[in-house]
Specification:
Rossmann fold; 13 strands; five-stranded parallel beta sheet; about 350 residues; two-stranded antiparallel ribbon
Length: about 350
């Protein structure tokens, strides 16, 4: 009988493997030089009319690989904030997920932190500051960011939702993600309507958490989430909470920790197979290498979970988590791009 290596031994091995590609690649972040004002984002929509038409024709529930690479990637793209777990070097597995997204066609500059260049964010950063950064990005880019959290990072993602819902403070200052500095304002100019609106009340399109809770609730920075984690506020449209069949770290034992909406959010609970590892769930970069594996993932929908087709040949470790998150990201990528394009066209003079 072959013994599985300890998660921590395997994680050390992953660190050695990724160390050789740890050099930050060069990339160009879009310039954010224009002050926020009514119409400034809509006037900057420079997507070709043909690409706009193709984006508007997409069915968000059925996005193919060609749709991603030939259409969505050429239009407005929401920023994704990936939040890793709290024990070094577990951040490497969330970086692996970021590389999976890039291999699936998601633009790198919409994943990397524009200040640090990192592919994931620490769960020890200020949740209020991240909420302020999310609002800043929406104000400047016209598409609402998405949050994906692993382990303590999943708890942090839900904590950010509570910040946006105004459950900790009545107002949240805007934070400039390029400098990390708070601005002397708690409102933004909504890029689609041109009207001033508070950061509190901003609703994100999608957030997910995997392996959240458990031991992390004992940490001082997460005490205020111990009784809130599984109650999802109205500051997100779609939320997916992932649990592992038997997770000693997250204290999940079957269906003991189900997420529920405390208002209007659509909340899904997904139970992953019990042989998935709490530590390694986001280790998914390998899934983006093989065409047949990418094809299976792109064809996946949540409705398939009751009757999954056979898995493709090759390494399919963590494929169910990756496929479900990728499905939701594609869906809301398309919806956000369509919202911005429709808002832009609504301001155009009749032809």
């Amino acid at each position: 009988m072959t013994r599985r290596p300890s998660p921590w031994v395997a994680l050390a091995g992953l660190a050695l493997v990724l160390a050789g590609c740890a050099t930050k690649p060069s990339y160009t972040e879009p310039a954010y030089t224009l002050a926020p004002a009514p119409r400034v984002v809509l006037d900057r929509v420079s997507v070709d009319r043909d690409v706009q038409d193709r984006i508007l024709a997409l069915n968000p529930e059925r996005i193919t690989d060609d749709d991603v690479r030939m259409t969505l990637a050429k239009g407005p793209t929401p920023r994704i904030v990936n939040i890793h777990g709290g024990i070094y070097p577990v951040h490497l597995v969330m970086e692996s997920f970021s590389r999976f997204l890039m291999r699936m066609g998601y633009p790198e500059t919409k994943i990397r932190d524009p200040r640090t260049g990192e592919l994931s964010q620490s769960p020890y950063l200020s949740s209020q500051a991240t909420a302020g950064e999310v609002a800043w990005f929406y104000e400047r880019e016209g598409v609402r960011p998405m949050l994906v959290g692993h382990s303590q990072g999943g708890m942090q993602a839900v904590k950010i939702l509570f910040e946006l819902a105004g459950k900790f403070d009545e107002s949240v200052p805007v934070t400039n993600p390029l400098t990390g500095e708070k601005e002397a304002r708690t409102t933004i100019v909504d890029p689609l309507t041109g009207r001033e609106r508070p950061v509190v009340g901003l609703v994100l399109p999608y957030t997910s958490a995997v392996g959240a809770g458990g031991a992390a609730t004992l940490l001082p920075n997460q005490w205020n989430m111990a009784t809130r984690l599984h109650s999802i506020p109205d500051s997100v449209e779609d939320f997916t909470g992932f649990t592992i069949g038997f997770d000693l770290i997250a204290w999940d034992f079957g269906s003991t920790n189900l997420y529920k909406a405390n208002g209007t959010a659509t909340v899904r609970n997904v139970s992953l197979p019990s042989d998935y590892s709490h530590v390694f769930v986001p280790n998914t970069a390998h899934l983006g290498r093989e065409p047949k594996v990418r094809e299976w993932i792109n064809a996946y929908t949540p409705a398939m979970t009751a009757n999954l087709p056979p898995l493709p040949e090759g390494d399919t470790t963590n494929i169910l988590w990756a496929a479900d998150v990728w499905y939701s990201i594609k869906k809301h990528w398309a919806i956000e791009a369509q919202r911005l394009i429709r808002a832009r066209r609504a301001t155009e003079a009749p032809r």
